[in-house]
Design goal:
Elements (H helix, E strand, L loop, with lengths): L7 H4 L34 H12 L3 H6 L5 E7 L2 E8 L8 E6 L2 E5 L22 E5 L2 E7 L9 E7 L2 E8 L2 E5 L8 E5 L13 E6 L2 E4 L1 H21 L3 H13 L3 H5 L2 H8 L8 H11 L2 H4 L15
Helix pairs in contact: 4-5, 5-8
Amino acid sequence: MRIISLLIALAIIAGCSRTGDGGSADPSAAPAASPAADLSAVPGGHQEEDAAAAALAEVSPEIADEYSGFVHMDAVQLNGQIFQVYYWNKGEFSYTQFAIVKEGKMVFDSKKAGLTLEGGDIWNEEEQLWAEAIVQNNRNTFLFSLMDNRPKYASIVVEEIDGTMQVTVNDLFSVNYEDVDQDGSEDLLASPYPGQSPLGPALMGIYQLEGTNYVPDKLLTKRYAVDQLQLSEQEYKNNPSEQTLEQLLNAYLILGQRSVALTRFEEFHEWAGQLAGDGGYVDEYQRLLRSTETAEQISGWMDKLKPLRITR
C-alpha cells in the first residue's frame, strides 16, 4: 500500500524560487517552509504533530553547508523516518539534480551516482511534491518522472535496500507499484509508452526485483492482462460507450486475441443497444479492429519483455 504521510501537507516547501543559472546560493535565500496548518482543533497530540512538522521542514545542516542553492524540497515521513528530497536546476525543466536526506544525513546524490538528468517533471503539482515517495515491500522508495524524452516516458526509481539507497530503475518507462496478485507484496508495473486512440493499447508489464534489478514476470503479466480483459468486458457491458468498448478491444489486442474479439460483435452490438450496419460506434470499432495493424505490431510482446535498465 502506498504510504505518504499526512504530515507532508504540514511541511510542503513553498516559494520554490529558481537560482537563475542553478548554481550555489546563500542558504538563507533557500526556499522557506510554508506555515504549518493549525492543529489546535486536534484533540490531544497536536504539539507532537507540530514538532514532527517542524522537523520535516528543517533544512539539513549538510545541505545548508555544502549543497546550497536548491530550488525545492520535498519533506515526507516513511516508516516513521523523516526524508527530504532536495532539487537543483541547471536547465529548462524543473530540476536536473536531486539529493535524498534521511534523518538529516545525505544518503543519495544523483550527481555522485552518475545520473544525468536533462530535466525532471513534477509528480504532484497540487501538493508540491516533485517525486512520489512510498513504502513498498517495506522498502523506502522514491519515483522520479523525467521529461528527457517527451512525449515518451522516462523514470528513475531509488530504493533503500539493505540500508543503502540504490538506483533500481533508470529507463524509458512509466512505473508504479500495485499489489497485482493480492499477495500482500507490491509489484512494479511498467509501460514504455502511453496508449493511443483508436486501438493503440499501452503495454503494461509486471516486474519483480532480483537483487537490485527488476526482471519481467511474464506469468504474472499475462494473468494481469487476463484480469484486465474480464474487468473491461464487465465495464463495457454495464456502461457501454466508445471509451469502454475501446478499452475492451485493447485488452483483446494485448492478449493477442483479435480474432476472438471479432467473433463477439453480436454481443457488443446488443450491449450497446445498436444493430449491425446501423453506422453506430460499435460498427466503427468493428471496422477498425478488422483493419488495424496493431495486432501484428504487438504480437508476442510479453515474450519479448526485458529487464528494466538501471543506467542509460
